[in-house]
Protein backbone atom coordinates (compact mmCIF):
# COMPACT_ATOMS: atom_id res chain seq x y z
CA UNK A 1 0.00 0.00 0.00
CA UNK A 2 2.18 2.82 -1.28
CA UNK A 3 1.06 6.42 -0.86
CA UNK A 4 1.65 8.69 -3.84
CA UNK A 5 4.02 11.51 -2.79
CA UNK A 6 2.18 14.18 -4.79
CA UNK A 7 -1.49 13.46 -4.11
CA UNK A 8 -1.28 11.73 -0.71
CA UNK A 9 -3.65 9.07 -2.16
CA UNK A 10 -2.82 5.37 -2.60
CA UNK A 11 -0.70 4.77 -5.70
CA UNK A 12 -2.49 1.50 -6.56
CA UNK A 13 -6.05 1.91 -7.81
CA UNK A 14 -7.25 -1.22 -5.94
CA UNK A 15 -5.92 0.09 -2.59
CA UNK A 16 -7.46 3.52 -3.18
CA UNK A 17 -10.83 2.00 -4.10
CA UNK A 18 -10.80 -0.23 -0.99
CA UNK A 19 -10.02 2.83 1.14
CA UNK A 20 -12.76 4.94 -0.48
CA UNK A 21 -15.33 2.15 -0.13
CA UNK A 22 -14.41 1.83 3.55
CA UNK A 23 -14.82 5.62 3.96
CA UNK A 24 -18.01 5.88 1.89
CA UNK A 25 -20.54 6.32 4.76
CA UNK A 26 -18.45 9.18 6.25
CA UNK A 27 -17.85 10.64 2.78
CA UNK A 28 -21.58 10.73 2.06
CA UNK A 29 -22.32 12.39 5.40
CA UNK A 30 -19.52 14.94 4.93
CA UNK A 31 -20.64 15.73 1.39
CA UNK A 32 -24.26 16.28 2.46
CA UNK A 33 -23.34 18.37 5.50
CA UNK A 34 -20.80 20.55 3.67
CA UNK A 35 -23.09 21.22 0.72
CA UNK A 36 -25.97 22.27 2.99
CA UNK A 37 -23.64 24.54 4.98
CA UNK A 38 -22.17 26.14 1.82
CA UNK A 39 -25.60 26.55 0.23
CA UNK A 40 -26.88 28.49 3.24
CA UNK A 41 -23.90 30.86 3.05
CA UNK A 42 -24.27 31.19 -0.70
CA UNK A 43 -27.92 32.22 -0.27
CA UNK A 44 -27.13 34.52 2.67
CA UNK A 45 -24.75 36.48 0.46
CA UNK A 46 -27.71 37.74 -1.60
CA UNK A 47 -27.92 40.34 1.20
CA UNK A 48 -24.62 41.75 -0.05
CA UNK A 49 -26.07 41.79 -3.63
CA UNK A 50 -29.01 43.80 -2.32
CA UNK A 51 -26.71 46.21 -0.46
CA UNK A 52 -24.50 46.69 -3.54
CA UNK A 53 -27.12 46.80 -6.31
CA UNK A 54 -30.41 47.65 -4.62
CA UNK A 55 -33.62 45.88 -5.63
CA UNK A 56 -33.90 45.59 -9.42
CA UNK A 57 -33.49 43.31 -12.44
CA UNK A 58 -29.75 42.73 -11.87
CA UNK A 59 -30.38 41.81 -8.23
CA UNK A 60 -33.09 39.36 -9.32
CA UNK A 61 -30.72 37.83 -11.90
CA UNK A 62 -28.18 37.24 -9.14
CA UNK A 63 -30.88 35.77 -6.90
CA UNK A 64 -31.72 33.35 -9.74
CA UNK A 65 -28.04 32.37 -10.05
CA UNK A 66 -27.85 31.74 -6.30
CA UNK A 67 -31.07 29.72 -6.49
CA UNK A 68 -29.51 27.53 -9.21
CA UNK A 69 -26.55 26.83 -6.92
CA UNK A 70 -28.86 26.13 -3.96
CA UNK A 71 -30.98 23.75 -6.07
CA UNK A 72 -27.93 21.86 -7.42
CA UNK A 73 -26.08 21.62 -4.12
CA UNK A 74 -29.30 20.92 -2.21
CA UNK A 75 -30.17 18.06 -4.58
CA UNK A 76 -26.67 16.60 -4.28
CA UNK A 77 -26.83 16.91 -0.47
CA UNK A 78 -30.24 15.26 -0.40
CA UNK A 79 -28.98 12.43 -2.60
CA UNK A 80 -25.91 12.00 -0.40
CA UNK A 81 -28.05 11.78 2.75
CA UNK A 82 -31.02 9.81 1.52
CA UNK A 83 -29.80 7.66 -1.34
CA UNK A 84 -26.96 5.20 -0.99
CA UNK A 85 -24.78 7.04 -3.53
CA UNK A 86 -21.98 4.94 -4.99
CA UNK A 87 -18.37 5.99 -4.91
CA UNK A 88 -18.57 7.24 -8.47
CA UNK A 89 -21.84 9.09 -7.82
CA UNK A 90 -20.42 10.95 -4.79
CA UNK A 91 -17.56 12.17 -7.00
CA UNK A 92 -20.00 13.32 -9.69
CA UNK A 93 -22.20 15.04 -7.07
CA UNK A 94 -19.19 16.82 -5.52
CA UNK A 95 -17.71 17.94 -8.85
CA UNK A 96 -21.15 18.92 -10.25
CA UNK A 97 -22.05 21.09 -7.25
CA UNK A 98 -18.59 22.72 -7.28
CA UNK A 99 -18.74 23.47 -11.01
CA UNK A 100 -22.20 25.07 -10.79
CA UNK A 101 -21.20 27.10 -7.70
CA UNK A 102 -17.99 28.38 -9.35
CA UNK A 103 -19.76 29.22 -12.63
CA UNK A 104 -22.51 31.17 -10.82
CA UNK A 105 -19.88 32.87 -8.65
CA UNK A 106 -18.02 34.22 -11.72
CA UNK A 107 -21.36 35.35 -13.18
CA UNK A 108 -22.16 37.24 -9.96
CA UNK A 109 -18.64 38.76 -9.89
CA UNK A 110 -19.09 40.14 -13.42
CA UNK A 111 -22.43 41.69 -12.43
CA UNK A 112 -20.65 43.53 -9.58
CA UNK A 113 -17.46 44.66 -11.36
CA UNK A 114 -16.47 47.32 -8.79
CA UNK A 115 -15.84 44.73 -6.09
CA UNK A 116 -13.35 42.32 -7.64
CA UNK A 117 -11.06 42.63 -4.63
CA UNK A 118 -13.89 41.34 -2.39
CA UNK A 119 -14.74 38.62 -4.91
CA UNK A 120 -11.11 37.47 -4.80
CA UNK A 121 -11.42 37.02 -1.04
CA UNK A 122 -14.64 35.02 -1.46
CA UNK A 123 -12.96 32.89 -4.14
CA UNK A 124 -10.00 32.19 -1.84
CA UNK A 125 -12.42 30.85 0.80
CA UNK A 126 -14.25 28.79 -1.83
CA UNK A 127 -10.93 27.30 -2.95
CA UNK A 128 -10.15 26.15 0.59
CA UNK A 129 -13.61 24.58 0.81
CA UNK A 130 -13.01 22.77 -2.51
CA UNK A 131 -9.59 21.48 -1.49
CA UNK A 132 -10.44 20.50 2.07
CA UNK A 133 -14.11 20.16 2.86
CA UNK A 134 -15.95 18.82 -0.16
CA UNK A 135 -14.86 15.17 -0.47
CA UNK A 136 -13.43 14.70 -3.96
CA UNK A 137 -10.28 13.30 -5.53
CA UNK A 138 -7.12 15.39 -5.34
CA UNK A 139 -7.00 15.64 -9.15
CA UNK A 140 -10.64 16.81 -9.44
CA UNK A 141 -10.17 19.43 -6.72
CA UNK A 142 -6.94 20.69 -8.29
CA UNK A 143 -8.40 20.96 -11.80
CA UNK A 144 -11.60 22.69 -10.64
CA UNK A 145 -9.84 25.11 -8.29
CA UNK A 146 -7.09 26.14 -10.71
CA UNK A 147 -9.51 26.44 -13.66
CA UNK A 148 -11.82 28.65 -11.58
CA UNK A 149 -8.84 30.79 -10.50
CA UNK A 150 -7.66 31.21 -14.10
CA UNK A 151 -11.15 32.15 -15.33
CA UNK A 152 -11.58 34.60 -12.44
CA UNK A 153 -8.24 36.31 -13.16
CA UNK A 154 -9.10 36.68 -16.86
CA UNK A 155 -12.46 38.23 -15.92
CA UNK A 156 -10.71 40.55 -13.46
CA UNK A 157 -8.44 41.76 -16.26
CA UNK A 158 -11.43 42.31 -18.49
CA UNK A 159 -14.03 43.81 -16.11
CA UNK A 160 -12.26 44.70 -12.88
CA UNK A 161 -11.13 48.26 -12.44
CA UNK A 162 -8.05 47.45 -10.41
CA UNK A 163 -4.70 49.20 -10.19
CA UNK A 164 -1.64 47.20 -11.27
CA UNK A 165 -0.57 46.85 -7.61
CA UNK A 166 -4.00 45.49 -6.61
CA UNK A 167 -3.92 43.12 -9.58
CA UNK A 168 -0.54 41.69 -8.56
CA UNK A 169 -1.69 41.32 -4.94
CA UNK A 170 -4.83 39.51 -6.11
CA UNK A 171 -2.85 37.08 -8.27
CA UNK A 172 -0.48 36.37 -5.37
CA UNK A 173 -3.38 35.87 -2.94
CA UNK A 174 -5.14 33.37 -5.20
CA UNK A 175 -1.93 31.49 -6.04
CA UNK A 176 -1.26 31.28 -2.29
CA UNK A 177 -4.81 30.00 -1.61
CA UNK A 178 -4.36 27.30 -4.28
CA UNK A 179 -0.89 26.30 -3.09
CA UNK A 180 -1.86 26.03 0.59
CA UNK A 181 -5.19 24.39 -0.27
CA UNK A 182 -3.41 21.73 -2.36
CA UNK A 183 -0.69 21.17 0.27
CA UNK A 184 -3.26 20.86 3.06
CA UNK A 185 -5.39 18.47 0.95
CA UNK A 186 -2.32 16.32 0.24
CA UNK A 187 -1.44 16.24 3.94
CA UNK A 188 -5.01 15.38 4.92
CA UNK A 189 -5.17 12.59 2.29
CA UNK A 190 -1.89 11.18 3.53
CA UNK A 191 -2.86 11.21 7.23
CA UNK A 192 -6.22 9.54 6.61
CA UNK A 193 -4.60 6.85 4.45
CA UNK A 194 -1.85 6.20 7.00
CA UNK A 195 -4.55 5.74 9.62
CA UNK A 196 -6.34 3.27 7.31
CA UNK A 197 -3.06 1.40 6.66
CA UNK A 198 -2.53 1.03 10.41
CA UNK A 199 -6.09 -0.23 10.86
CA UNK A 200 -5.72 -2.78 8.04
CA UNK A 201 -2.40 -4.00 9.50
CA UNK A 202 -4.00 -4.34 12.93
CA UNK A 203 -7.01 -6.22 11.53
CA UNK A 204 -4.64 -8.51 9.63
CA UNK A 205 -2.63 -9.25 12.75
CA UNK A 206 -5.76 -9.89 14.82
CA UNK A 207 -7.29 -12.21 12.22
CA UNK A 208 -4.24 -14.22 11.12
CA UNK A 209 -2.07 -16.93 12.57
CA UNK A 210 1.45 -15.57 12.88
CA UNK A 211 3.23 -18.75 11.75
CA UNK A 212 1.25 -19.74 8.67
CA UNK A 213 -0.60 -16.56 7.64
CA UNK A 214 -3.93 -18.46 7.66
CA UNK A 215 -6.98 -17.08 9.48
CA UNK A 216 -6.94 -17.90 13.19
CA UNK A 217 -9.58 -19.48 15.39
CA UNK A 218 -10.73 -16.06 16.67
CA UNK A 219 -11.51 -14.92 13.13
CA UNK A 220 -13.37 -18.18 12.50
CA UNK A 221 -15.60 -17.71 15.55
CA UNK A 222 -16.01 -13.93 15.50
CA UNK A 223 -16.39 -13.42 11.76
CA UNK A 224 -16.76 -16.49 9.58
CA UNK A 225 -19.28 -18.21 11.87
CA UNK A 226 -21.55 -15.15 11.96
CA UNK A 227 -24.80 -15.98 10.11
CA UNK A 228 -24.67 -14.81 6.49
CA UNK A 229 -20.92 -14.22 6.56
CA UNK A 230 -19.99 -17.19 4.39
CA UNK A 231 -21.97 -16.69 1.20
CA UNK A 232 -22.46 -19.21 -1.57
CA UNK A 233 -22.17 -17.59 -5.00
CA UNK A 234 -25.66 -18.56 -6.14
CA UNK A 235 -28.93 -19.40 -4.44
CA UNK A 236 -29.09 -23.10 -3.58
CA UNK A 237 -25.27 -23.52 -3.71
CA UNK A 238 -23.79 -25.95 -1.21
CA UNK A 239 -21.17 -25.26 1.43
CA UNK A 240 -18.29 -27.69 1.97
CA UNK A 241 -15.62 -27.75 4.65
CA UNK A 242 -12.39 -29.76 4.63
CA UNK A 243 -10.67 -30.43 7.95
CA UNK A 244 -7.05 -31.52 7.55
CA UNK A 245 -4.66 -32.90 10.14
CA UNK A 246 -0.98 -33.64 9.53
CA UNK A 247 -0.14 -37.25 10.43
CA UNK A 248 2.40 -38.10 13.14
CA UNK A 249 3.34 -34.49 13.50
CA UNK A 250 4.61 -35.00 17.03
CA UNK A 251 7.20 -37.38 15.57
CA UNK A 252 8.48 -34.65 13.26
CA UNK A 253 8.90 -32.27 16.20
CA UNK A 254 10.58 -34.96 18.29
CA UNK A 255 12.90 -36.12 15.49
CA UNK A 256 13.86 -32.87 13.78
CA UNK A 257 12.99 -30.20 16.32
CA UNK A 258 10.22 -27.63 16.71
CA UNK A 259 11.60 -25.23 14.10
CA UNK A 260 11.51 -27.99 11.46
CA UNK A 261 7.95 -28.80 12.55
CA UNK A 262 7.09 -25.15 11.93
CA UNK A 263 8.52 -25.44 8.40
CA UNK A 264 6.20 -28.41 7.72
CA UNK A 265 3.21 -26.41 9.00
CA UNK A 266 4.13 -23.47 6.74
CA UNK A 267 4.54 -25.75 3.75
CA UNK A 268 1.13 -27.40 4.31
CA UNK A 269 -0.58 -24.03 4.79
CA UNK A 270 1.06 -22.70 1.63
CA UNK A 271 -0.18 -25.69 -0.36
CA UNK A 272 -3.68 -25.30 1.03
CA UNK A 273 -3.84 -21.57 0.29
CA UNK A 274 -2.43 -22.13 -3.17
CA UNK A 275 -5.09 -24.74 -4.00
CA UNK A 276 -8.09 -22.76 -2.74
CA UNK A 277 -9.76 -19.76 -4.38
CA UNK A 278 -8.50 -16.36 -3.41
CA UNK A 279 -11.23 -14.14 -1.94
CA UNK A 280 -13.83 -16.95 -2.01
CA UNK A 281 -12.54 -19.78 0.17
CA UNK A 282 -11.21 -19.27 3.69
CA UNK A 283 -8.29 -21.21 5.16
CA UNK A 284 -8.11 -21.34 8.96
CA UNK A 285 -5.44 -22.77 11.24
CA UNK A 286 -7.88 -24.71 13.38
CA UNK A 287 -5.44 -26.16 15.89
CA UNK A 288 -1.72 -26.98 16.24
CA UNK A 289 -1.39 -29.10 13.09
CA UNK A 290 -5.04 -28.93 12.03
CA UNK A 291 -6.30 -26.74 9.19
CA UNK A 292 -9.80 -25.96 8.00
CA UNK A 293 -10.80 -24.96 4.46
CA UNK A 294 -14.25 -23.38 4.04
CA UNK A 295 -15.45 -23.68 0.46
CA UNK A 296 -18.65 -21.76 -0.37
CA UNK A 297 -20.58 -22.88 -3.47
CA UNK A 298 -18.76 -26.22 -3.53
CA UNK A 299 -20.46 -29.63 -3.47
CA UNK A 300 -19.12 -32.80 -1.87
CA UNK A 301 -17.41 -33.92 -5.08
CA UNK A 302 -15.53 -30.61 -5.26
CA UNK A 303 -14.46 -30.92 -1.61
CA UNK A 304 -13.27 -34.52 -2.09
CA UNK A 305 -11.39 -33.52 -5.22
CA UNK A 306 -9.57 -30.74 -3.36
CA UNK A 307 -8.78 -33.00 -0.39
CA UNK A 308 -7.43 -35.76 -2.67
CA UNK A 309 -5.23 -33.32 -4.58
CA UNK A 310 -3.93 -31.92 -1.30
CA UNK A 311 -3.33 -35.38 0.11
CA UNK A 312 -1.27 -36.56 -2.88
CA UNK A 313 0.61 -33.27 -3.30
CA UNK A 314 1.48 -33.11 0.40
CA UNK A 315 2.59 -36.76 0.50
CA UNK A 316 4.90 -36.00 -2.47
CA UNK A 317 6.29 -32.83 -0.90
CA UNK A 318 9.50 -32.96 1.07
CA UNK A 319 10.39 -30.11 3.38
CA UNK A 320 13.96 -29.16 4.31
CA UNK A 321 14.81 -29.42 8.03
CA UNK A 322 15.72 -26.25 9.88
CA UNK A 323 19.46 -27.02 9.70
CA UNK A 324 19.19 -27.67 5.95
CA UNK A 325 20.70 -31.15 6.25
CA UNK A 326 17.71 -33.44 5.66
CA UNK A 327 14.37 -33.50 3.93
CA UNK A 328 11.22 -34.48 5.82
CA UNK A 329 8.13 -36.09 4.38
CA UNK A 330 4.78 -36.93 5.96
CA UNK A 331 1.10 -37.29 5.10
CA UNK A 332 -2.22 -35.80 6.20
CA UNK A 333 -5.74 -37.08 6.92
CA UNK A 334 -8.90 -35.30 5.80
CA UNK A 335 -12.57 -35.03 6.78
CA UNK A 336 -14.86 -33.49 4.15
CA UNK A 337 -18.44 -32.46 4.94
CA UNK A 338 -20.99 -30.68 2.80
CA UNK A 339 -24.39 -29.12 3.57
CA UNK A 340 -26.98 -26.68 2.32
CA UNK A 341 -26.19 -23.32 4.01
CA UNK A 342 -29.87 -22.31 3.82
CA UNK A 343 -30.87 -25.21 6.10
CA UNK A 344 -31.78 -24.21 9.66
CA UNK A 345 -32.21 -20.63 8.39
CA UNK A 346 -28.46 -20.45 7.86
CA UNK A 347 -27.71 -20.65 11.61
CA UNK A 348 -25.03 -22.97 12.97
CA UNK A 349 -24.54 -24.69 9.56
CA UNK A 350 -20.82 -23.98 9.58
CA UNK A 351 -20.40 -25.00 13.21
CA UNK A 352 -22.27 -28.27 12.63
CA UNK A 353 -20.35 -28.96 9.42
CA UNK A 354 -17.02 -28.52 11.20
CA UNK A 355 -18.15 -30.99 13.88
CA UNK A 356 -19.06 -33.54 11.17
CA UNK A 357 -15.76 -32.98 9.32
CA UNK A 358 -13.87 -33.36 12.62
CA UNK A 359 -15.46 -36.79 13.22
CA UNK A 360 -14.71 -37.83 9.64
CA UNK A 361 -11.11 -36.72 9.98
CA UNK A 362 -10.71 -38.85 13.12
CA UNK A 363 -12.32 -41.77 11.23
CA UNK A 364 -9.61 -41.27 8.58
CA UNK A 365 -6.94 -41.34 11.31
CA UNK A 366 -8.37 -44.54 12.77
CA UNK A 367 -8.65 -46.02 9.27
CA UNK A 368 -4.87 -45.78 8.83
CA UNK A 369 -4.19 -42.05 8.05
CA UNK A 370 -3.24 -40.53 4.67
CA UNK A 371 -6.84 -40.73 3.47
CA UNK A 372 -10.00 -38.72 2.86
CA UNK A 373 -13.32 -39.47 4.55
CA UNK A 374 -16.34 -37.54 3.34
CA UNK A 375 -20.04 -37.23 3.96
CA UNK A 376 -22.89 -35.03 2.78
CA UNK A 377 -24.89 -33.58 5.65
CA UNK A 378 -27.63 -32.23 3.32
CA UNK A 379 -31.20 -33.27 4.06
CA UNK A 380 -31.47 -34.73 0.51
CA UNK A 381 -27.99 -35.60 -0.66
CA UNK A 382 -27.55 -36.85 -4.23
CA UNK A 383 -27.52 -40.66 -4.38
CA UNK A 384 -24.16 -42.13 -3.47
CA UNK A 385 -22.97 -39.00 -1.75
CA UNK A 386 -24.25 -39.59 1.75
CA UNK A 387 -20.96 -41.16 2.65
CA UNK A 388 -17.93 -41.35 0.39
N1 LIG B 1 6.38 -27.20 15.56
C1 LIG B 1 5.17 -26.95 16.03
N2 LIG B 1 4.51 -27.93 16.66
C2 LIG B 1 3.26 -27.69 17.10
C3 LIG B 1 2.67 -26.44 16.96
N3 LIG B 1 1.42 -26.49 17.51
C4 LIG B 1 1.27 -27.75 18.00
N4 LIG B 1 2.38 -28.47 17.75
C5 LIG B 1 2.66 -29.87 18.09
O1 LIG B 1 1.88 -30.74 17.28
C6 LIG B 1 1.88 -32.01 17.91
C7 LIG B 1 0.55 -32.68 17.69
O2 LIG B 1 0.68 -33.97 18.15
P1 LIG B 1 -0.52 -35.00 18.25
O3 LIG B 1 -1.79 -34.24 18.64
O4 LIG B 1 -0.11 -36.12 19.14
O5 LIG B 1 -0.77 -35.46 16.79
P2 LIG B 1 0.14 -36.28 15.78
O6 LIG B 1 1.49 -36.57 16.33
O7 LIG B 1 0.10 -35.54 14.48
O8 LIG B 1 -0.62 -37.64 15.64
P3 LIG B 1 -1.85 -37.94 14.71
O9 LIG B 1 -2.62 -36.66 14.55
O10 LIG B 1 -2.65 -38.96 15.45
O11 LIG B 1 -1.32 -38.45 13.43
C8 LIG B 1 2.21 -31.76 19.38
O12 LIG B 1 3.46 -32.30 19.67
C9 LIG B 1 2.26 -30.24 19.51
O13 LIG B 1 3.24 -29.81 20.42
C10 LIG B 1 3.41 -25.41 16.32
O14 LIG B 1 2.96 -24.27 16.12
N5 LIG B 1 4.64 -25.72 15.87
Automatic annotation (TrEMBL):
Keywords: Membrane, Transmembrane, Transmembrane helix. PROSITE patterns: GGDEF. Residues 237-377 form the GGDEF domain. GO terms for molecular function: diguanylate cyclase activity. It catalyses: 2 GTP = 3',3'-c-di-GMP + 2 diphosphate. SUPFAM superfamilies: Nucleotide cyclase. Gene3D superfamilies: 3.30.70.270. The keyword Cytoplasm does not apply. The chain crosses the membrane at residues 30-47, 59-80, 92-110, 116-134, 141-161, 167-185. Its EC number is 2.7.7.65. It is an enzyme of class 2 (transferase). InterPro entries: Diguanylate_Cyclase, GGDEF_dom, Nucleotide_cyclase, Rev_trsase/Diguanyl_cyclase. This is diguanylate cyclase.
Amino acid sequence: MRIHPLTGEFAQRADETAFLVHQLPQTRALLGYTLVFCTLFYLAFSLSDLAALGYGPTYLKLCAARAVVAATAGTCAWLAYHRPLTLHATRIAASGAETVALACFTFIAVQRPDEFHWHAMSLAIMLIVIYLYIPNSFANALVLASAATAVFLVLTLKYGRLTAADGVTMVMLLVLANAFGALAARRFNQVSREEYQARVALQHTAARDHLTGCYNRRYLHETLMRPGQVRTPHHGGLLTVVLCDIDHFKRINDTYGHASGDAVLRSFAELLRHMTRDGVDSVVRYGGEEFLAILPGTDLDGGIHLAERLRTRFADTSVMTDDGKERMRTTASFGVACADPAADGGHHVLRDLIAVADKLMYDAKRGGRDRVHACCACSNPPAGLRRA
